[in-house]
Amino acid sequence: MPRPAMKYGVWLLLLVVVLCGGACVGPIEKPGPAAGADEPAVPIFLVNQGWHTDLVIPRADIPKGIWPESEEFAEADYLVIGWGDRDFYQSPEVGFWMTLKAALWPTASVLHVTHFNGPVKTHYSASEIIELKPSAGAFRNLCRYIHDSYQRAGARAVPLAPDYYPTSRFYPAHESFHLFRTCNAWTASALRAAGFSVSPLSALFSSSLMSEVRALGKPVR
Questions:
Q1: Category of 197 on φ-ψ map: left (φ > 0), alpha (ψ -120 to 50) or beta
Q2: How far apart are the first and last CA of the chain?
Q3: CB 49 within 8 A of CB 112
């Protein structure tokens, strides 16, 4: 997650406390199919980055024909996926008014994809990591959910402006970002697509999402 994330989290936390008092209700998406006992598991990881959570996926296990943009990172061991407000996520400098706009008005969204090689525990040397093991079929559903999040005009989504890091890219995404559809809520929906019973409505913050996921997976650190 880019550097403004922590500052953004503080502003958004204040807005949530003031505007919704912690009482957020509404419909919850149905989780994807449960993992089959006879299917091999595919390890994925959720990483606590403070305000933001990283969804880490083994690139080699992504089924062919799904998620064509993943092929742009052919040499990577893992892909890291995030979603958020388009203007904020791409801006090196954020403030209260940019955060207010992102929280109170539905705004365009973006997918942030980065990659790395080597063990997950080594790459995230100081973060909490939870390992989850969806079945191959449930993992396919997760990849399809990510695939469907891109906004495409052709066979593949076209990256937006250059990212902060040479190993990552921004892509236009579907859905609108707003106070009750945060980056962590999107990640919770992705995990539900993989069959895990987590609630996007209670996952506005990384702390609440990690609290749910700890009961579903194995701590790596």
A1: beta
A2: 19
A3: no
CB 201 within 8 A of CB 187: no
Q: How far is CA 217 from CA 24, 172, 201, in A?
A: 26, 31, 20
> What is the C-alpha to C-alpha distance for residues 62 and 59, in angstroms, rounded to an integer?
6
Tell me which amino acid residue 87 is: D
CA distance 206 to 221: 16
107-117 pLDDT, tens per residue? 678 899 999 99
Length of the chain: 221
Map residue 26 onto helix, strand or coil.
coil
Q: Which two three-digit tokens encode residue 126?
A: 């100081």
pTM of the model: 0.78
pLDDT for 68 beyond 90 = yes
